[in-house]
Give the backbone structure.
Amino acid sequence: MCGRFTQQRPTSEIASIFGADDLADDPGERYNVAPTDEAAVVVQRNDRRAVVRYRWGLVPSWATDPRAGSRAFNARAESLATSPLFRDPFRRRRCLVPVDGFYEWRRDGGTRQPVWIHDPSGGPLALAGLWTGRQDPETGEWHRTFTIVTTRPNDFMAAIHDRMPVVIAADAWARWLDPAPADPGELRALLEPREDVSLEARTVSLLVNNVRNDGPGLIEAAPEGGARPTTTEPPAQS
C-alpha cells in the first residue's frame, strides 16, 4: 500500500528532472500528502510531457459520486488489466508520481510506527500511476485524478509491509508515459517489484499519523528509540 508521501521539490525542479514543462508552478515543501489532496504528477500528451496537479484518488468518468476517489488511491498491479475501474487508464492514461519518499506503518507493540522510505542518495522515486478525467455534470468542469500502482514487496520492503508502490526506472519512463493504447502484456514487466532500487527506511515521528501535520520535522529521525535506519543497495553488476 502507499497511503502518504512527500513532495519536497518544487515542480520546476521536477520538470527539469523529467524533461517536462512545469504547468503546476508549485513550490513543493509538502511532507504529508494524503489521499484526496492535489499533488504533482508527470503526464505525456502526444509530444508534450508536463508536470501537472491532479487530485489523489481515481474517480472514473462514469462515477456518480466523486467521493469514490477516497477509496481508489491505490491500484493493485495484478488486476489492472481486468478491473473495470483501472483497465482503461492502464491502457492509455498512465502517469508518474515523483516523490521524495513515502510512508508505511509497522506495528511496534500497540503502536503503528511510521517509517519514511526514500532513496538514500536524495534522488526522487518515480512511482507508477494512472490518471483519468471526469466532467462535473452540473458545472461542466473537468476534474482529473490519479492513483498509485502497488505490487508485491521486494526483499527490502517485505520486512516492512506486504505491498509496495511500483517504482519505474528512468530508462522506462517514456514507455510508461506513452499515451498510445498498450497491450497489458507489454507493460507487465514494469510492474514487477524491483530489487535494483536503493531504499532506506527511517523511523519518524508519530506526528505523521495526523494528516493536518506538515513540515520537514515529519521526516526527521524519531527522537525515541533512534532512527533505526535500514538501507538496501542495488546488487553489484557482474
User: Anything to note?
Assistant: The chain has one domain: 5-232.
